TrEMBL record, chains A, B, C:
Homodimer. Heterotrimer; a RHCE monomer interacts with a RHAG homodimer. Component of the ankyrin-1 complex in the erythrocyte, composed of ANK1, RHCE, RHAG, SLC4A1, EPB42, GYPA, GYPB and AQP1. Interacts with GYPB (via the N-terminal); this interaction bridges the (RHAG)2(RHCE) heterotrimer with the SLC4A1 Band 3 I dimer complexed with GYPA. It comes from Scleropages formosus. One of its GO terms (molecular function) is ammonium channel activity. This is Ammonium transporter Rh type A. Residues 414-425 have a biased composition (Basic and acidic residues). Gene3D superfamilies: Ammonium transporter AmtB like domains. The gene is RHAG. InterPro entries: Ammonium/urea_transptr, NH4_transpt_AmtB-like_dom, RhesusRHD. It is found in: Cell membrane. Residues 404-425 are annotated as: Disordered. Residues 29-397 form the Ammonium transporter AmtB-like domain. Pfam families: Ammonium_transp. Functions as an ammonia transporter. May play a role in the elimination of ammonia in the gill. The chain crosses the membrane at residues 12-31, 51-70, 82-100, 112-131, 138-157, 169-187, 199-219, 239-258, 291-311, 331-348, 360-380.
Amino acid sequence: MPAYSTNMRFKFPIFAIILEIITIVLFAFFVEYDKGGHSHGIHTHTHFQNLFQDVHVMIFIGFGFLMTFLKKYGFSSVGLNMLLAAFGLQWGLLMQGFWHGGGKIHVSVYRMINADFSTATVLISFGAVLGKTSPLQLLILTLLEITTFAVNEHIVADLLKASDAGASMTIHAFGAYFGLAVARMLYRPGLKNGHENDGSVYHSDMFAMIGTVFLWMFWPSFNSAIAEPGVPQLTAVVNTYLSLAACTLSAFAVSSLVEHRGKLDMVHIQNATLAGGVAVGTCADMAIGPFGAMLIGFLAGIISTLGFKFLSPILAANLGIQDTCGVHNLHGMPGILGGLAGIVAVQFGKKDGSAGMQAAALGSSLGFALVGGTITGLIMKLPIWGQPPDQNCFDDSIYWEVPEEEEENNESLTHGEHSKNKAEA
Amino acid sequence: MPAYSTNMRFKFPIFAIILEIITIVLFAFFVEYDKGGHSHGIHTHTHFQNLFQDVHVMIFIGFGFLMTFLKKYGFSSVGLNMLLAAFGLQWGLLMQGFWHGGGKIHVSVYRMINADFSTATVLISFGAVLGKTSPLQLLILTLLEITTFAVNEHIVADLLKASDAGASMTIHAFGAYFGLAVARMLYRPGLKNGHENDGSVYHSDMFAMIGTVFLWMFWPSFNSAIAEPGVPQLTAVVNTYLSLAACTLSAFAVSSLVEHRGKLDMVHIQNATLAGGVAVGTCADMAIGPFGAMLIGFLAGIISTLGFKFLSPILAANLGIQDTCGVHNLHGMPGILGGLAGIVAVQFGKKDGSAGMQAAALGSSLGFALVGGTITGLIMKLPIWGQPPDQNCFDDSIYWEVPEEEEENNESLTHGEHSKNKAEA
Amino acid sequence: MPAYSTNMRFKFPIFAIILEIITIVLFAFFVEYDKGGHSHGIHTHTHFQNLFQDVHVMIFIGFGFLMTFLKKYGFSSVGLNMLLAAFGLQWGLLMQGFWHGGGKIHVSVYRMINADFSTATVLISFGAVLGKTSPLQLLILTLLEITTFAVNEHIVADLLKASDAGASMTIHAFGAYFGLAVARMLYRPGLKNGHENDGSVYHSDMFAMIGTVFLWMFWPSFNSAIAEPGVPQLTAVVNTYLSLAACTLSAFAVSSLVEHRGKLDMVHIQNATLAGGVAVGTCADMAIGPFGAMLIGFLAGIISTLGFKFLSPILAANLGIQDTCGVHNLHGMPGILGGLAGIVAVQFGKKDGSAGMQAAALGSSLGFALVGGTITGLIMKLPIWGQPPDQNCFDDSIYWEVPEEEEENNESLTHGEHSKNKAEA
């Protein structure tokens, strides 16, 4: 199949280098340091820089390691996560700037937080197609999704003036449905009956828990980073902390309830315990009360776990949506729940605003995601980007040099491991 | 043995859900946002939020991964750590509030730090019974231990007005002896000669080092978080940093001294290097001098390592105290050392206070721990909580779906791993 | 070979304990708490403490886990990293103080950041000799290198008054060439054809990525920590963030370009993606423009990857420099690039200063590194420090108790693993 050649030798490096050179040229023309605004004064700097570092950890460690649960796909999960986020934050800085005002784009720590945010959408979508795409396809996804995100974010925040402090709608629901639309376009009938590498081993599940726990811990910073300083920001921290705590209890409980002999399932624990952070996002800075935040989290943990158990198999079997990480359960449904909770909260006066505009924001986010994802999926489907054949899915060794340990265990049990072995060398 | 049924299918989920619903109802009645006090003003918020995030990392990554050293108990260590901490922080917020004043409880970031602190006692005790208890038993432990902790903490801080900035007495010694009392009540003669799963493999020891290093790094934040802002807080940071550094040298040295051919033992490195953080706790904010802090740390590293090597086997063999993680060596003895150092330091005028009250605080902490732990252990011993039988101790697969890698290595070396294998499926 | 006895039983513990006691005595005479200066006022404290915690994570998690890529050397990598950093920060506090002024040394959080910095030089050099030295040799390296570092740093900062905010010259180039000089002195002809343990396995590469990602994320804090507060500090954060992002793209691209079938090589991804942080160091706080920072990072990623692929084998084969971690490629060449960029930037007026003095600073750093490293290497070569024989290189089991998993897989496939197995027990 020459059209499906997965040899990246020239395509990937040349594309990546040209993309970076273009980006640097755009920065030379359009970007300069910020001299005032959000970042003037040492105290504000300290404030934003700490939030920035927390968000940065969520993007690079949190998302990166959360996806390392697959037994043979850890290099790609954490490595490509780093590549996409590194490119995405540059592109996000440019895209935000183009939409948020004329003249030069001024890089401040506040803008860096927003740039990191824009990469989160891509990393969510990455989860839906994990193991089934080439690095080149993923760079294209990054380019197109962040561009679409910036348009939608501009509409939601500047035109509709809707509230979405923790970005349940603009990041989580958007990223999930964008990714699901791409996954639908890239549907692989050959994976209908599963794939031997589409599963975890003991230590890959442990690596994934590093991602889970860092996401869980720093989510209060994520949801409060762009809230108004003062009471709204404090409220966002408290609401997120409590929502996640309640969500953890319900996720554990429901996982045990639906599994064989009441056992806990690592997939649920790795993911559904985080749904409370997603779902409380839109309301994070609203005076919904500590128990209100806990109720949202409690509900999100239940919905998310049930989604993994019952809905994901249906989406794969009936709708042709093969969602590797189950982003629909962690980001999709809890993101919509967050959007709906925001509509209700604004309606009940928990924050100034219009319930109608909140609903329009949710609709806009879903619409841009589905249309943008479908078009992006069609482009990614072109047989020139080195997409892996079915039998090489979920396997690092197609795009990475991989040490040869497993073969050796099988073939040569009596001698030690050789230095510098490479798979398929 | 029907009384020892470990099927969690209904017991655990129903108990967890009811517990969470009761908690949410209590929050609805008693808890509201803080509007002033410790958290007003953006700068104070930044200050406390950063300390909070550091403490949060210690609780969820530090304690969670420190306990992953067992070869087959990583899911439980990091997963149940998350469950207990998530429930514990909610319960801790309620318990603190009930004792610290009438009227509503106001959640601020400062209170969130204290809530995280209260969970630390449970996670220390968890270490003593690691591998030998069901998730349900551990939820009961959390409920009872945090309640007891709140009473003792109220007595020490508000009635005795004793100093314990880094909580050597109220968290470390309390948590350790509470856990040891529980472990004594749950004594298992069947484990007298060890258990094949009560040991590490190479990579499980590596995961545990993630926990060790994060605890080590953020301990200055832990010990300074509730100290008086200004000089006392700076002092707590400096003292803790130096105590841990000196402790690391003595722990490495003594580990080498007592082992075969001078080799280092990972158990000592993972644990005894942290004893300096525990032992300097009570004195952390006192003007004991940089070299004073280093002396405390140096001594703690020696005592802790010797405890692992010589005392733990004696406790298990002669007193029936099977302390899986050796919390007596990391939290127990160094906690008492910290309490004693505090008495001496106050006596010598390093901080205003009464040496007698310091001694009373140490006695109160130990007394509440031993009595509370004994009663809690008796309740946990009731044969209705799904406690694992001896042969299933230290093994995730009794409460978790576990991928089947090891069986496969043995049985089917020539084919690849199957997707979605589950242990005992 | 009695001269090469690797039994550490008395040598190592006695040396470590005496070293620590001497250090405590020196602290008792020369060190006291800081009462003003950099650390007065709670807001400045918060500011520096957060930077300190970020730098601390880089030193202990970043460097520690980056070196865990070797299949059998993880305990030593993260464990000895902790030992050397813990001693190094104490020694660094003393050495800085001796050079930076008369009278007592005042420990502030600012000084703690600098103490952590001084340990970074040792950890870089450690990378060059990883797997080939005893713990005792490494303590001697720490003692001598930090002493040399403090002299050079005093000359560069106080006498030449050169700019080096992110320490491309004084930490990275210095640490790399010091380590390479030591490695040259400790040249082992027996390792000319490689060593079976000098390679990674799948999960050891995953652990190493934890180190990579934490270094990558917190590098903006490292490069801005000692910059002037206000605009220069903001500039350092922005420049480092963008340099690393651009560097990641070029490192991935070149890795794919030079490897078989365009595959990515984990060694490049783990290391070369960080070269942008090193290379932008000297210019970090200068107004080189966002695109200027990106250009430096882009170039650093290319040079570093090419160095791993083509230069390291030449250094090993022709110059007798066996550089285990390739520190020449991550810290050496990018450090020089950073120094050169600093000369150019000062020449073009991006910051007040003298290009000549910048050049002198680079020369001084390289000179002290090469001379200091050569002398240190000669001392480390003395046959009394328990250096490992060639066949035991890159293997924890010579200095650590190691669980026996691998032997078991081979010999006794049918029974489970035994508890408390020890290698060579």
